[in-house]
Design brief:
Blueprint (H helix, E strand, L loop, with lengths): L16 E3 L1 H7 L3 E6 L11 H14 L4 E7 L3 H13 L2 E7 L7 H5 L2 H7 L3 E4 L6 H14 L4 E4 L10 H13 L7 E6 L3 H12 L5 E6 L4 H19 L10 E3 L12 H14 L8 H13 L8 E6 L14
Parallel strand pairs: 2-10, 3-4, 3-6, 4-5, 7-8, 7-10, 8-9
Antiparallel strand pairs: 1-2
């Protein structure tokens, strides 16, 4: 079954699935595979490309001439949105929110921020103590009054349209894993669209795989409720049976002191993947997620006979902005 919704080709799909032979041997537990969504191609790649393939047609259908979106300073989502706008000839306005206290200059200007500008996006920094979404809405009203027709994409591209990208990703995974050998999919969960889309895909394609979310921001109960509500919204949109509440599972022990704040576990995970597999994780999402996966293996959450698929959501461009943390 394929999703019958408007889609624009922006990335390289299906992304590869690779066996992490060296790390599997190093951790001495279940077999670990990786879904290379860092290789989607658009603007150095990442998971948001999948969402944008469905979001951008909706913007075009609504005759938008300005795409407005929001994110943290080193947002991977804003970078890929800016790249998509460059491809499609649309103006892009990004409102960036400071979530890291006492950030060095490299964090504020290099990595994704530099790429946002290189792709031609206009960048506005949200004032402290202002809600970034409300501030973006104020800017949109101003631009409308000046004759623009803006289209708003929420943080992370996480809504019922953006989720379609990861419903489609589940189709790719199921087509690859025809014998249903994967027991678990492990992914980072933040704005929730990747996680919820995967849960919806599991339901839509009738898969038995267990999906494990590693939170990079919110505590377990808040994140699970957010993801479940997003999944319900997407199921209503595509007219499929909603998932069960127990299908949404989150571990929240790897966030550290806050979103985007480096942890020792994240640094160890990034270094392990780099030195064992030659693959770059990022400090905000995939690094903390893989730290969680490692820890769950050490705590025997998984059986040695399990077969895990780790979804690499991209973001290595932000490593340049985090050199100080390493």
């Amino acid at each position: 079954m394929n999703l019958k919704f408007d889609r624009i080709s922006l990335g390289h799909f299906p992304t590869p699935i690779e066996y992490l032979q060296n790390i599997t041997k190093h951790l001495n537990g279940p077999k670990i595979y990786i879904k290379r969504d860092d290789c989607t191609g658009l603007g150095t790649g990442g998971n948001k490309t999948r969402k944008l393939e469905f979001l951008m047609p909706d913007a075009i259908k609504n005759k938008a001439d300005l795409i407005v979106t929001v994110g943290a300073i080193q947002s991977n989502h804003t970078r890929q949105t800016a790249a998509a706008c460059a491809v499609l000839g649309l103006k892009c306005l990004i409102v960036l929110e400071q979530r890291l206290a006492d950030a060095p200059n490299a964090y504020m200007t290099s990595g994704n921020v530099f790429l946002d500008k290189l792709f031609g996006a206009e960048i506005i920094f949200c004032p402290n103590k202002k809600d970034v979404k409300e501030y973006a809405e104020e800017i949109m009203i101003e631009r409308k009054n000046k004759g623009a027709n803006p289209y708003y994409i929420p943080v992370g591209g996480s809504n019922h349209i953006g989720e379609l990208g990861y419903v489609e990703c589940m189709r790719e995974i199921i087509q690859y894993d025809k014998d249903n050998l994967f027991t678990h999919i492990v992914l980072a969960t933040g704005s929730g669209g990747t996680h919820s889309g995967t849960v919806v895909g599991k339901t839509y394609f009738k898969s038995n795989v267990k999906i494990v979310g590693i939170s990079v921001k919110d505590e377990k109960n808040i994140q699970e409720e957010k993801v479940f509500k997003l999944a319900q919204s997407a199921c209503k949109y595509i007219k499929c049976e909603p998932p069960q509440r127990e299908d949404v599972l989150v571990f929240d022990g790897y966030v550290g002191s806050g979103y985007g704040v480096p942890t020792e576990g994240m640094k160890e995970a990034v270094k392990l993947m780099a030195t064992k597999e030659g693959i770059l994780l990022d400090p905000v999402y995939s690094g903390k997620c893989f730290n969680g996966l490692q820890d769950l293996i050490l705590k025997k959450y998984f059986k040695d006979t399990d077969k895990l698929l780790f979804i690499h959501t991209g973001g290595a461009a932000s490593l340049h902005a985090y050199e100080w943390a390493f």
